[in-house]
Specification:
The chain is mainly α. The protein has two domains: about 90 residues, P-loop containing nucleotide triphosphate hydrolases (Rossmann fold, 3-Layer(aba) Sandwich); about 80 residues, no CATH class. It contains eleven helices and two strands; from the N terminus they run H-H-E-H-H-E-H-H-H-H-H-H-H. A two-stranded parallel ribbon has the order 1-2. Helix 6 packs across helix 9. The C terminus is likely disordered.
Length: about 200
Amino acid sequence: MPANRPVGAQLAAVESGASHLLVVAPPGCGKTEILAMRADYLIRTGAIRPGHRLLAITFTNRARDNLNVRLRQQLGDQQMRRSVSVWNFHELSARLVEAHYKAIGLDPDYSMPVKAWQRKAIAALTNDKREAAGALDLLGSLNREPLSDQELLAQVEGSGNLVALGYEQPGGEIHRLRRPAPICANNPSKPSYSCAVRGPL
């Protein structure tokens, strides 16, 4: 598929020399396409130097996958592999923790939470698939909101979903399965893993 070229108002966004841009448009009007064309423009004009990579960050997995497809269409597989990384915020956060675990006081043997932990913990609370699905949906939607741990727990309590509450309840067996005991428990001045990362990635 041939690369797209910017037209009309797209041209100003794609070829802007500004370091920060805000593109406002309704859904389906080409914002992702503009990102792909801007990446192409930055690479072709040398703004992304050889040996360096462009990092594109998205909020959801779906947006990440959609941007990946558009970038591959625009750049081609080889240029994409060489010049662009597309991650969501969870992937970026995980990589930062992996790269700087010593600086934030984590033990070298720490392990990152994964989705399988959440499903296993929910399955330990209920055999009812509908209840499990409801708890997973609720927790998934709340974990996408900018909530502190206390706010998230208050939302779960307010929902009346007992399975989700059993999962989120601090100090419970299920809570400890998802969040291992603090790695820096013997040194309260250092942050613990349970404080550094919330929820499965």
